[in-house]
Design goal:
By secondary structure, the protein is an alpha+beta fold. The protein has helices at 36-41, 115-124, 129-132, 146-149, 178-188; strands at residues 13-15, 22-24, 28-31, 53-56, 61-63, 67-68, 77-79, 81-87, 103-110, 113-114, 138-140, 144-145, 156-161, 164-170, 196-198, 206-207, 213-218, 222-228. It holds the Pfam family FAA_hydrolase.
Length: 229
């Protein structure tokens, strides 16, 4: 019987609220500039351009309540509060009208970004991986099944730093809605059970420093909190 030549990696998971069950994570897709006001604050056109995506790694996830180190090689880490969409089934070329059938549930995440490194990569025309997909760059709450809350399309999405509100928007401000994200992603990738989608952030992104406490939430979905050591 064959065996692994090194220890097999642990499967990253998110808890399912109210149960002892775990949701195994396959991939993490993130939608860029999906709120018009955030596109404007980042210096881009807020009009409805085709969506674009980047990835984080499943092992970038860190649970709510964690204390995380300030990341290395940066002096400008930014927070971006987002709703997480968790898929229970996948496929290719999923029709928009069938897309929500593939959703297991929803959660809350923070897309942490080494903004100074991202700016350098943009100038050089290079990928954003070193800015987006580093260790502990994806704090995430537990998931709430869609069977319990439905499919949120409106509701407050917010983030505070040390108790001061920094981001405060509504899911109805998303340029590309959840079914459209899923349908578009499925033209580029074969989506799989366990895939997560970070669905974009409203305006108000900004820097954090050591000692800061980040708390955020999405109405009817949940909240999360992390502290920078």
């Amino acid at each position: 019987m064959a065996s692994f030549v090194i220890p097999a990696p642990v499967v990253p998971t998110l808890p399912v609220k109210g149960t002892d069950a775990l949701f195994p994570v396959h991939r993490i897709y993130c939608v860029g500039r999906n709120f018009a006001d955030h596109a404007i604050e980042m210096g881009h056109d807020p009009n409805r351009e085709p969506p674009f995506f980047f990835q984080k790694n499943p092992d970038n996830l860190v649970p709510s309540g964690s204390t995380i180190p300030y990341p290395k090689l940066t002096k400008d880490v930014h927070y971006e509060i987002e709703m997480i969409v968790a898929l229970k089934t996948g496929g290719d070329d999923i029709p928009v009208e069938k897309a929500l059938d593939h959703v297991f549930g929803y959660g809350v995440g923070i897309d942490l970004t080494r903004r100074d490194l991202q700016a350098e990569q943009k100038k050089l025309g290079r990928p954003w991986d070193i800015a987006k997909a580093y260790e502990q760059s994806a704090p995430a709450s537990g998931l709430v099944p869609a069977s319990e809350i439905g499919h949120p399309s409106t509701g407050r999405i917010w983030l505070s730093v040390n108790g001061e509100t920094k981001q405060d928007g509504d899911l109805n401000q998303m340029i590309w809605k959840v079914p459209e994200m899923i349908a578009t992603l499925s033209t580029f990738f074969t989506l799989q059970p366990g895939d997560l989608i970070f669905a974009g952030t409203p305006a108000g992104v900004g820097p954090v420093k050591a000692g800061d406490v980040l708390k955020g939430g999405v109405a009817n979905v949940g909240e999360l909190e992390v502290t920078f050591a």
